[in-house]
Amino acid sequence: MTTLEIVRNSLLVLHFVGMAALLGGFLSQFRARERKIQSGMLHGAYLALLTGVALVGIRYPLHDENPEYPLPDNAKIFVKLLLLIVIVILSITAKKKQAVDSGTWLGIGLLSFTNIVIAVFW
What pTM does this model have? Predict the structure, then answer.
């Protein structure tokens, strides 16, 4: 295993942790009467965004080192990045409020789930 592969795998683990924090914060409040954006959700979104961009960036040197590593699908990356930016914006604006309305809260959760589905099936 090369150094680049170790870095990629470490970034991937951190990316999973970020998405788990985001989706876990959403699911933990599923039955709550008054929902709010927890700090862990916002930090998870930041972590997923940062590591996602780094994962795309590291694919190019990995491909140069070993052509078996495919280059990223830019259309897929664009869609996932757009979804995550919307999630971050919704989370930041909702974090400032005492209680989050159901539409915003549900939007954050569904966009997070959609992002995971795109990662797996596209």
Answer: 0.92
> Of 50, 69, 48, whose CA–CA distance to 4 is shortest?
69
Contacts 24+ apart (CB under 8 A), 11-14: 11/51, 11/54, 11/55, 11/58, 12/51, 12/55, 14/47, 14/51
Q: Output the CA torsion 33→37→40→43 (10° steps).
A: 160
pLDDT in tens, 35-74: 999 999 999 999 999 999 999 999 999 999 999 999 999 9
Alpha-carbon distance of 81 to 53, in angstroms, equals 8
Q: Cα separations (Å) of 10 from 6, 7, 14, 96? A: 6, 5, 6, 32
